[in-house]
Records
---
Amino acid sequence: MYQSIHRLYHHHCLSKIFQPVNLKPKDSNVKKDEPMSLSQKLLVETGIISLRSNGMFALLPLGQRILKKLMMIIDEEMISVGAQRLTLPLLTSADLWKITGRWNSTGQELLSLQDRHNREYVLSPTHEEAITSLLRDVYPLSFRQLPLKLYQITSKFRDEMKPRFGLIRCREFVMKDLYTFDESEAKAIETYSEICNAYDNIFQRIGVPYIKVAGDCGNIGGSFSHEYHYQAAIGEDTLLVCHGCQEATNIQLLSDSVNAVCSKCGSDMATITGIEVGHTFLLGTKYSEPLGGCYQNKRGKPEAAHMGCYGVGLTRVMAAVVEVLTTSDNIIWPWEIAPFKVCIIGPKEGSLEAGVTRWVNHLAKVLSSLPGYEDDIVVDDRHRLTIGKRVLEARRTGYPYIVVVGKKAQEDVPMFELIHTMTDESCYLSHHMLITHMRGAA
Amino acid sequence: MYQSIHRLYHHHCLSKIFQPVNLKPKDSNVKKDEPMSLSQKLLVETGIISLRSNGMFALLPLGQRILKKLMMIIDEEMISVGAQRLTLPLLTSADLWKITGRWNSTGQELLSLQDRHNREYVLSPTHEEAITSLLRDVYPLSFRQLPLKLYQITSKFRDEMKPRFGLIRCREFVMKDLYTFDESEAKAIETYSEICNAYDNIFQRIGVPYIKVAGDCGNIGGSFSHEYHYQAAIGEDTLLVCHGCQEATNIQLLSDSVNAVCSKCGSDMATITGIEVGHTFLLGTKYSEPLGGCYQNKRGKPEAAHMGCYGVGLTRVMAAVVEVLTTSDNIIWPWEIAPFKVCIIGPKEGSLEAGVTRWVNHLAKVLSSLPGYEDDIVVDDRHRLTIGKRVLEARRTGYPYIVVVGKKAQEDVPMFELIHTMTDESCYLSHHMLITHMRGAA
């Protein structure tokens, strides 16, 4: 039978990558006086994303790579808790949203359209109605198949009044949404805490410090929820975090008179701002009852499932990690989602050290063969540019490591400069030391 | 740094898979007298897809697995011709479609909406306008970076007057769309033929016989095009194929008086019906001129790029391969995109041969460790059902191989039944012979 003969383990050449750099957002929909976040500015200027319409971005090839890595982390953690991936249509019949009342309660943020027969559809911001009606339609699903955990990673839509900060608050975005179905509230709470563990794994793997807080249920509804935040100055949520026990709450949950002392341990509470990147909800039967989302119980009877729903905003994470880690005009990517882990830069064409160019391909080949780097090495082969110019661009794009093959590669024991962009440290290493170091970093 | 500790190489358990079987399409939008295709019936009844609204389907977990495998084939073949993946917004500003005239010419198939500020957007069926305006906005892109090949795999929308045959003609579907940009018509033709080679690779890897025909440019426009078809009775395109030289044409290209003799070799031509699953177009400057999609030429001046566009309908392929290969009520999947390659079935609980159940997990473990089967083994662990019932279901779902651990596994040299569903052959093999056979099949 036909076998895949393609192995993707090779290095990439920057000259071939579509990364239109140093662009200012040109879209006329962006007003000149609108606040722009650091992530928005840097992701656009480094050619990772591109504004296409007001609040809508294209993920360019580097952005697509980051998205793919986030998806992989999420897929693995979802599979590890037994969740199954599917794809629901992006269009959901408005009839379902009318049954739950969200057709009216969501307001102008809901994008909708009519088809040629004047039937109304929602351009779904979330899929509680859609997934619950799926459960209804496949009845009888036995109690033996519970807990059922179904998720998707798809584009979602929200007609923000004021889209801003680039991928932080846009109108079309990529979200992972998971829905769980259980027999009882007690079992739904068990599932809920299992998923929260998976969320901790996801955010730990992304590798950027996060804060989990008791959350606001908002328009989704349900009995309780938690939010996952990245602390950032531009964050739109205000959180109260205890200095002592790390207990944290979204301030929206509290009454007007905010108590600045932790109820749990008595320590002082600090007010910080956060970007919400994940949200978990225990929904109860809010959706399954009106929509008839039932499983077949032990007595063979239909019974409304106890649901949970759980979101991670992938495109928002992409921008929020930049807000957290980046302090200058150089992006800092967390290791696990960097578009490439290593950028190798050789001498300029016609320069005195041009003879060492052969080291570039050699290093690219050796590094690509190390576990953890298979598809993650890029060579900036634009040899008409100086080393300095290319190092600047590589720093700006935020590759965790930059390897420079320059003058010192001509020495008897060739030495290569290794730059660690997160700590802004650099040193010269021999071939052997370089490989050993990179193996240790993986 | 945090390391991925999750390996996905383990077997799956059918009891945990959300596969609601034996369902009839219930959606009230499906009229009782509407023609239903075999693929539509079987994909729904085996719980691979589910009709959600008129012409809109959910891909359930097995369908999602098939989609993922198709994506992998396409990603590999696209990368091998240097194409880069990105994601454009699904919503495209109607202004762009007005510039090219397609806002009016597309007619009622175009789904569109207005946002809260009454700005119009297209729910994109295809992205020529969007990608060309991207090229315009990133100017100056140097001639050195051409040919530029950008693709995406995303949901597309078409408000079909009569959605039918399930995934064959639906209103929301998954498509790979590639766009290429070249300096001249001559170079664009070179790129075109390179992409056609990649398409041949894609369809050869999928493994179902296909027909490449000179095509109709339709509403996309351009100077010439080719179509990739699967021959099937329900196909909506009529093709004229030469018995001698295999030259083929879409009948839409011909004048009224169809010549039944091949112009190339003089042989008789046969009329067949095909399902279009891929389409390639040489566009010229049809989009780049009105939209200003220019690169910077050798003299530093803007010049309209010569474009090509190339589509593969992934969800349509899923259904069309079923139409081609399936002759009974049992789906036949091509090897490379089967939801699982092997289904292992053990004895019923409490049956005389229940003692051999230990072989089930053993075989699952050994087979999962063979190259090519890492994530592709499923165990039907619903041991309350008879072997016979589960074999029937496995045949119906279309796993290429079924391994039955039954009575003969009790013998001194345990024997396992191996069923090859495509040829409907079966035989009893020892442990060693079974593993050797499966290694050979990969």
---
Amino acid sequence: MNYPVIVDVTLRQGIADPEGATIERALPALGFTGVTHMRAGKSFRMDIEAPDEASALEKATALAERLLSNPVIENATARSGTKG
Amino acid sequence: MNYPVIVDVTLRQGIADPEGATIERALPALGFTGVTHMRAGKSFRMDIEAPDEASALEKATALAERLLSNPVIENATARSGTKG
């Protein structure tokens, strides 16, 4: 069966995030105040063929560490995604 | 109070996704089979000061449409995020 999976890739704590910092600095000029700790990340949606959801998530985690993220500076987590 | 919010930005259906397509093509060479419909997206984590969570999510949606996404080709959705 095919299971929809979402992999979230975020920068590890302490790693500089110039994209997030730039967005945060731009917000007050657009009238948005009270927004802090902006961090930019990536997400990947995919369908994985597996016998059950746990194996699909395991495969997604392996794949995320191999190809989708740089484990030195990024965390990757896989979660079940609703079909859409 | 500060509410943690995550904004997911994904390409609309039908919009070409060369990054996702390239990842999908690379997977079999790494030994990952049975992965289809790979789509790449972005995610943004932030803390939003608001009187309640519903207002925080509303502010995040407005901000996502103004600054974080291109509404012509992308969908943006805001969801509550756990502090991390």
